[in-house]
Amino acid sequence: MKKLALFAIIVLIFGTVSPSLVDGAYAQNDPSILLSIAVQADKQIVNQLDRVYGDQIPNNLQILYDKGHGAVYSLDESLPNDIEKAKQDFLLAMNSFMQISRIISQSSEKVVVVVVVSDKSNRDLSNELDRLVNYVKSLETISKKYDTDTESDFIKIYDLIQELRQQVNDLNEVNVGIKKIKIILDSIKNDIRESAIEQRSDFIKQFFDRLLDQIDKLLTKAQNDGVDQIQIDKGHELILEIRELLSKNQINDAKVVYLELKELMKNIGYSIHIT
Amino acid sequence: MASFIEPIQLKQSLGDDGILFVRNDSILDTMVKTPLLVASMIIVAALLPIQSSFSSPRDLDLIIYPDGSTHISTEIDIDPFLTDYELNLFGSTIDNLVVVGDDEFLLDTSIMDDSVLIQTFGSSVITIDYDIHDLVSKQGRLWTFSLDSPSNFTLLLPKNSAIVGMINLPINMEIINDQNQLTLSPGKTEIDYLFSNTISIPDPKIETNYFSYAIIGGVLIIILIGSVIIIRTKQKNHKSVEDNLTTKKSTTLDLETIFKLKSDLREDDKELVKFIFNNGGEALESELRKKFLQPRTTMWRAVKRLEREGVIEIEKKDLQNLVKLRKNMEDEE
Lengths: 275, 333
Hints:
- The complex is a heterodimer of chains A (about 280) and B (about 325).
- With about 280 residues, chain A is an all-alpha fold.
- Chain A has helices spanning about 1-25, 30-55, 60-80, 85-105, 125-145, 150-165, 170-200, 200-225, 230-245, 250-265; one strand at about 115.
- Chain B has helices at about 25-30, 35-55, 210-235, 240-250, 255-260, 265-280, 285-290, 295-310, 330, and strands spanning about 15, 20, 55-65, 70-75, 85-90, 95-100, 110, 115-120, 125-130, 135-140, 140-150, 155, 160-165, 170-175, 180-185, 185-195, 280-285, 310-315, 320-325.
- In chain B, α7 packs across α8.
- Helices cover about 30% and strands about 30% of the residues of chain B.
């Protein structure tokens, strides 16, 4: 008995602690990568300092560089035996190099341009098209899975992208083209949704059934708790409406009505959760 | 002097007020059934990680494009009894959002500033892909990536970029298609990088110790391989013509033959096979994910499908899955 209880406790402790053990083991995966990154950064900083200042490196940058470079050597010495020291050296080196490159980028450029990447005009159009192709491809994979009749749309999109790649310097033309493609993609998404819903309608209906039963019970409880009868009646009406729409296979419409029902339940203070 | 030790559990004593104290070790036996206790503890232990894993990303992969925009791909375990799920995005300038649930079921979404409301309707795992333009800023020639991540994540930096500063420790770094991919831990991350035509190679002086170890190791490996080859060659000399025929069969099949043998392969699976074939007959699963920009589980399912079909075999290499084209498909047919 004692042994069994002890075993159970060990299982409990191991089960709780094991995920963190795995993380810890992973965190020490090949510490020599720290050295590779630091050495690469060191070289880049040397190149930058050479390019900008030649032999006349400002004193503050020289001090920072010596600090960083020293930390890289110390990092090399620390590996592979003293991992904790190696980590500290790495952070010290990378922090020094970060400061240097920030000072250089602020002081050396005649006009420091701070580019906001979120501003559309600053984005590279060819990158924009690459991202669009990935988006198209992921939708194409999903549409193939659900056998949607969208093959010709995808061909059209790929042709358009091809054309846009040749006009990549014309910002307006590309933006208009991308808008056109997005409209086609929206329509494809709708087709995929319709088709997926058809194929998964049984699952969704079963899910809704359980959900509506639960809401029904919640409404009864709310009625007993003295919630306004108008709200309760409205809730029952919406449930009926959803059931009717589901019976006609109008799942998207059912979802829309459900959102209204969910809002109502929230307003009367009852959160929906299937158990 | 004769003395004996009386077992303490058998000792019964009367207190001052005449109360009988009985030490009872079998209290657990009488109150709790042992198997029940063990089972419940195991269940609790098993459920703890599941409980804490709901709503936390299972995978989080980021790819930075040369213009600083970032593609995010994440997979999240969610409560299958929920009808919707609100996810905080890493910013508000979002493009190309695709959210799929179980069975790659395309889910409805509505973006509100920097969060998205996803109608999950019973899905237990959702995969989210989007492009975001808020994570990278540029000052002069210096690019800075910043993120406060809720979980471990991978970050693929653009080609020809070199890291010149960072504020935290990476867990791992790999080179994928000439690009650095870092694995980083949760919390605040800031990485400065710049583009350079001459990406420096780590200093040979610093690497001396490792090189000497590598050379010694290399020599030992060559000796080992050499002796294995010699032994094998000797063994082969004794083998029959039949063995030679088998050896001929074991060379990798060409693509046409593979597709002919497995005519019912899906188009996307064929693309995977083509890539593996052109990659010398093998590729890491992580390479496939990056090449086809697929989430981890989607790619895992595809690889498993191909394994079931007998087209590939999976081997473990440095804690990763190495996917290899099978050499003896004809035998199976």
